[in-house]
Amino acid sequence: MSLRRRVPFLRWSFLRLALGARNITRTGQIGDGREAAAVEYVLENARPGDVDDVLATIDRFAYEESFLINVGDEKGALLDAAVRRAAPTLALELGTYCGYSALRIARAAPDARVVSVELAPANADNARRIWAHAGVDDRVTCVVGTLGDGGATLDELADLYELAPGGLDFIFLDHDKDAYLSDLLSILDRGWLHPGSIVVADNVGLPGAPKYRAYMREQQGGRWQTVEHKTHAEYQTLVPDLVLESELLLT
């Protein structure tokens, strides 16, 4: 890996990310059009219907064109392994961005239905285009909304996917870090998880989800069994991060 790839501070697109932090909170995008550019790059360069090539093309864009804030290749391998362990029939993702992680989930669980919840309509549109190009749009869908809206999005998920008690096998958290814990508790209150359900949370180290991490530590060996994976923030090998993988023991 080149020094420019390894050290993100040498890349203007990474510095632009820091400048766009407020924009990310408001719109879900960095604000310089890189997300739409990533879609066009995939459509022009990735083989249609080839999930592996679509993922590799997104990674190449993030390394060589503009830095992206999806889970990335290193942490993506942790996500893949957790999905395979869960062997889900139904997987839920919170935080779609460009659709990269949902695509990884779909690849690791080829028989699963994958539902992604995204606050920003523009991100949802971008992800749908990528999923269609990869040929998985028949089983990967996006719901625009947020679990913190008083129950409307949770009700929509229940109605659309007929979520029964214990019907959800896997969750990936990669949205508003401050909402990780409250959103997980909302799902638990609905009774959708079952013993053996797995929850993976990205960016617990950077930018950090301290309330979520404290909750999982308090529940260790009781309601949850958690492994903390030491890794790196997306698309570089300098800045550390944590991914938490938690298995539900008791509902």
UniProtKB/TrEMBL annotation:
Domain of life of the source: Bacteria
Keywords linked to the UniProt accession: Methyltransferase, S-adenosyl-L-methionine, Transferase
SUPFAM superfamilies: S-adenosyl-L-methionine-dependent methyltransferases (SSF53335)
The name this protein goes by in its record: O-methyltransferase
Native species: Mycolicibacterium komossense
